Fold this sequence. Notes:
The chain is α/β, with parallel strands linked by helices.
Amino acid sequence: MSNKIKTLDDVLKAFTLSNDILLKISALLLDEFERGLDPHRNSTASVKMYPTFVRDVPNGTEEGKFLALDLGGSNFRVLCINLHGRLYYMTSKIYEIPQSVMNGSGEALFDHIAKCLVDHLEYLGLHKKVLPLGFTFSFPCIQKGLTNAILVSWTKGFTCSDVVGHDVVQMLRDALMRRGNEDIDVIAVVNDTTGTLMSCAHMNSECRIGLIIGTGCNACYMEKLENVGTWTEDQGEPQQVIINTEWGAFGDNKSLEFVRTDFDRDIDENSLNKGKQLFEKMISGMYMGEIVRRIVCQLASEGQVFENKLSEKFKTPYKFKSKYVSYIESDCNFKSDEVRSVLQKMGMEEVTEKDRRILKEICTCVSTRSAYLVSAGVATLLNKMKREYTVVGVDGSVYRFHPHFKDLMQKKIRELTDSNYKFDLMLSEDGSGRGAALVAAVAARTSK
């Protein structure tokens, strides 16, 4: 048994990614991008590169009142946005989706969404008005048009029946019809990455990449039509379309086995979508805390930390939240007691300073790997797009709340990107929901 005992250094070394490894990952991802855009090779691509049918960013002339529905996790938002060019006024309300609904029938899910949407409109006194709605639906979909999105697979803990293979816009419309609300006009469905890109482009016209690092991880970007072999629609101006990469599935074809650890494999083995979204499982907030917990459990079992006296909470999958990683890493020099507070939440009272330092080191290593993997992805896009200057719009709880994530990304993207291509990271202030309303507003503008 002794030769199987792993020290802290052994474990963390597997999470340390050099620039050479990151450049190798970037080259593999670029090949996946090209494969996904090629109609002859798309069927063999793990990264599907779905055209979104969104062809333009806001130009500052959009006007009017728009609704947005933002569904991307266990909560969803209903928004009402008044647009006056670059100025806007927005109200929103967050609704919870119970676990039973997340894992129930598709009809029950959309009935729940429709009820909350209508309740909010009644509260605002807008239930009698015909209003255009942008729908952010943050799961892998094949889009057949701006108002037609076929769900490919559920992620992020959803397993609702009778939705995969169906048009989610039609399911929303049917649910609204069942409530007698035909006045809501769904004129665009977008992914949260597209919503983020549009939201940031409303503030800065150089935004051409949308990135989510939250419960899940994904990116989209503006691609020239000439590079999109899978595009069979209108060839007119503008000669571009936003591509939803769905890069969370990168590595599903076993191409990332050289960087995946035993902990990544264990998490996948015990997940709802085994063998799927392997890149996302190394990065996102749904899994980051669980990776830390599993490392702690292994080291504790070998007497390396906590004297093998772990609480029941620490032994329970997913009890160590990813937000705890952010809390712990915001504790500079152990002066703010964040580490001790997290350990108390986990049922660990008597802990040495050495143990607290080890826990922080594990958190730092896991989150740094996450930031570096995302950075390799962003650098791949910047090098592919070859623009002199690009704003990257970013949203998601990991990026928003982790104290070092942005700095880690800025430094690493710069190291991995051709020096001719400059970039800035821009936090999406109002999330992907406002972006969905902006897609609806741009659609309304261009249809005139």
